[in-house]
């Protein structure tokens, strides 16, 4: 199914004045930026987290705990696309759409726990993925993967901005180009000052607000007289299936998992998202920023929690819109939504307007703003890290100081924020929207999945294979994508290349052909048999304050056999969870339902939706309250410091990659960071 034909339609009058859009996008954005800047200064004053030091700016001294890591993982995937896109595929494919959207996200987030802990164990001083590439394969490979990562970041940002700006424009009447350029403004400011720790804090704040709004929607919808109950909503969807059956669904029903378009989207989505995760430098930065014992549980908890967001809100919003589309309370009545509105991601905004009027519109603008700025922050810090570490430090100044690296990071923050807005504007004027980028992005993001995984997990991949296979994979994917579009639709255009079938074929070719290329080239040219110990020969870390680094991180960097053994155990746990998550979300749960051609009954539909909503509220706890519980020691330290009762911390010692062992430095802890142990001891005193 293609959504991208531009049809004539009468635009819905925005329920809010455009001034509301500017207030939220500009004023609220600047307020949030000011709060994050203030928070980073308080952390520097009270617990010594100095963002003028590179290790703190880029990796938060590798000490972020499980709760904040899990929150950041959820935030990294809580794109505006996750809310808008899951509702879009629910509208076009029925209840199967949001499920496959969610199932296309959780497995690879959990998989990254394995990739992250493996990278952390083998090269604990790294800041970015590309540093690992350069050390193992040299300059040519480094440049190839730099291009792949930048393509990933650019496409991801365009996807976010196109959907978010369209939604904000529909709700407020704000000019879409103004929204596109102003959305990154606050992001650039607080990321410029606070670095990765500001990103973690903003991730937490934004995601907490978004989950509160989504949970509010999950309650508010039942107060609407036209909906009333889950059972009545079921009746509304059943009637919608009779009025407008879906081609490719069993009996044309919205109430079935037997949906050809939805399962094709599921295949497309899981491949594309593997590319977005593996080739997104921000995921590696967050893994390197987490303490060793927080990486695996943080990513597993975050990945499982995230599943509820697209599943619950996509199901609820699309079901309500489908059920009430022929009701006078719906914004587009008496007509159905046009393909342009659907592809622009307006199913969820129209849902919010329908159930809560102007208040729902305001909540939707805030949620969209929070989602796009939070995820943009991660993308901006990722690109700035590439510019500072993988361009400036690698090729122009190998002995760069903290100040010089951070200066180039600042250039990257500002430059990429402007470029992302300009690129998204160009796509908009070229007729490209959220639906098109949602379908095709995997063609460009997937070629590096397996070569990058082999980089960290397989000794045998040769240098030639690492360089050539992703390039051939991208060429194969683009050729299959464009060729399929022409074969199926008779032309190569925005409309034909945005069809789901060409995008599925191109994405699968782009993702899996590099396996063949890499294995064949490696065996033909000779396996490398890389020694993982070689990763540690090049010192990458800057000097940092040892009182702010966990005992585990120090032990890993000093190659403590016991700690390395523990990390290998975490790796096994991550492997088991990856397999279980994939089988659960992709095989055991959905495929029997697809094969059974089952159409949901009222009781089953009620259970389906209620479980999704309960899961969503559980995610609210994980995102909103778990980080507070997990980080209570540092919170107490900050509060006491602000009250003038700053705990007495031993004189800070510094370490570099060649520092002596933890015990020799006089640092003895029991699973907590040194600063937390000192804080707790003073509180007990």
Automatic annotation (TrEMBL):
Domain of life: Eukaryota
Topology with respect to the bilayer: Multi-pass membrane protein
Segments of this protein annotated with the region Disordered: 651-671
InterPro entries: DUR (IPR031155), Na/Glc_symporter_sf (IPR038377), Na/solute_symporter (IPR001734)
Subcellular location: Membrane
PANTHER family on file: ACTIVE TRANSPORTER, PUTATIVE (AFU_ORTHOLOGUE AFUA_1G17570)-RELATED, PTHR46154
Family, similarity comment: Belongs to the sodium:solute symporter (SSF) (TC 2.A.21) family.
The protein, known as: Urea active transporter
Organism for this UniProt entry: Trichodelitschia bisporula
